[in-house]
């Protein structure tokens, strides 16, 4: 670890443990697992492998903190907001260390970790710190001699299961609103990327969140399943694959716990001939190649008006060829490795399926095996052309730097083809015709539509999916509904 800072080396020098009831503890059975650097396939450090017994301990801790009257739920909203705001400030203060940990664990370029993941995570906590004082009930005019009002109260014990593609940011998306609304939490990070969740939990403690309000259990899928099934968990928030989302919903039936899901996508990105074409080409490349294509909202289906099809395909191909693939710790790297051997096999398998089905590769299409790249899970940015809508590379989520491009003739045709998917997370439109843009935005079945931009996010704006891309919304004031419940109070006036 000669390329990382002293604080990062210090953190990695101690075994990652579970946070339960304010204490850092080993797993119940003493098991650990190695977290792997995907750029080298070498171990980074060891982390406690939590299991069902550890989930039981963490849920019991969260329940005690919620029911016992610790000051978190019952304190003034202003004080709760100050503590949450402090978390954001501590993320900024420790940003370099967090960026290095994120890059080591996930593989993304450290320049991206520092410029995107860290500031957005910090801002998310600051945004929800402001909401702590604005969670209000209402008075309702009702018939009869009654006074009726509502209270918006915390849900209780919340289980949160986060993915590996944006580990720190997804933890912030989940923790910010849950803390602002006064809940107690059990957080289960992805087994591939546990490090920033552990470091963030230390910062949450430092900020002043009481013992037991946040518990963190690292481990594999069995720990996540135990959390989703747990009878004393009131709500589960999950970000990840649609397949696992189905299992989360089934698991919730036991005690009818609330569920919110942010799942997969196969997002269409549509370029019209009246767009600012060079801007659209750059935007389309960023839409699919950002974060190695490991984005649930990646613009993986690129629809190009037939009049400019060749120009756009050539443009995005040239950008893909210039992307510098390498270790995320290398400051010259544009794109790091895929997260794991499983993901590497998945993406390269789809590359072969594309070729077998008759699609033509304009660039990429194979693993990167030269020099140091042979040691990691590297795949070249890939552009597929001459595709058909029924191909697997068009129908199924690849979750890698692979885009399938196809021409279209008119708006009605492209709207129908764009919606011909089981997913509905996001979509992009590139045109200077404002009427066309708004009309197509209304036709697309997606939770987010970007016009003349892509991958724009803000803590104040909701994000979530239609169809099998999930339900419920992250961010904005909409997410507060997922972490609160409404109580109606009637007062007789006679």
Please name the fourth-level CATH homologous superfamily of the largest domain: Aldehyde Dehydrogenase, Chain A, domain 1
Oligomer: single chain
**Strand percentage, roughly?**
15-25%
Compute the number of helices. 16
CATH architecture of the largest domain: 3-Layer(aba) Sandwich
First-to-last CA distance: 74 Å
Spans of at least 5 consecutive residues whose pLDDT stays below 50 are none
| Rg, Å, rounded | 23 Å
CATH class of the largest domain: Alpha Beta
Number of domains: 2
* Number of strand elements: 20
Helix/strand-derived category reads: alpha/beta
Classify the fold: give the CATH topology of the largest domain.
Aldehyde Dehydrogenase, Chain A, domain 1
- Largest sheet properties: 7 strands, mixed
Mean pLDDT: 96
What is the helix content? Answer: 25-40%
Assign an overall shape. globular
User: How are the strands of the largest sheet arranged?
Assistant: 14-15-16-13-12-17-18
